[in-house]
Design a protein that fits this description.
This protein is α+β, with helices and mostly antiparallel strands. The protein contains ten helices and four strands. The chain is 44% helix and 6% strand. Helix 1 runs parallel beside helix 3 and helix 6 packs across helix 7.
Length: 291
Amino acid sequence: MTDSTDYVPPRVWTWDKASGGTFAGINRPVSGATHEKELPVGRHPLQLYSLGTPNGQKVTILLEELLALGHRGAEYDAWLIQIGEGAQFGSGFVAINPNSKIPALVDRSGAEPIRVFESGAILMYLAEKFGAFLPTEQPARAEALSWLFWQMGSAPFLGGGFGHFYAYAPTKQEYPINRYAMEVKRQLDVLDRRLADHEFVAGDTYTIADMAIWPWYGGLVKGWQYGAAEFLSVQDYRNVIRWADQIFARPAVARGRKVNRTSGEPSSQLHERHDAADFDTRTQDKLASGA
């Protein structure tokens, strides 16, 4: 096994140079705001500040599913946070999420605004607020929450581990790519075995667990993540593919994937969402054509 460099760690680590690779400019070893920037506020009770990454998609998919069920209180404004430009380090965003990660939500429907940060917490908050997509009875509730938190613990190995070293690191190194490819394939096998005899991840009912897992692992087997479908032999996980296709066919999922998206076909990008009609009039292809 060979790596491009032989690195000997110092006794005490210091931050003396950028790490290199994609997204290096937004990584730093300290927290807090780097500049003053207030966040905009729209007219709906729910204000979402996000980007259409897999973590961001979880929340917009849930919001669109809630609206499809007729929950009018789930109307929302989705504001674009350009993490590549450091917008997550603005003072307004840090006040909502001191961890400076998207997504972050403010619920202004009550007497006092409520901030919610981290995608799993937002999914639970909204599911409980509207009484949907999270079972209330045991053991179904425990099963859904177990799989929700499975995603929270597993996806960093897929994104920050495999995705970083396979697609974004400044050099290709055998050891970390092998290490994380092995773990991601193990995770896919966990899902594949589970979905062999269950329609959805938590059982027979579509829940926030599916909405959390699908943008990461559904996107992976659909070929959208890191250009790694062939490398990981995703065709072997037939039950995951069946489930991924089933969820992809849901209209609310198709809408949720578009919100705050800044890559892909212009027709798939709705940079900001303030009204349901925006899907028909404000995608990037419509704006470019003047339609």
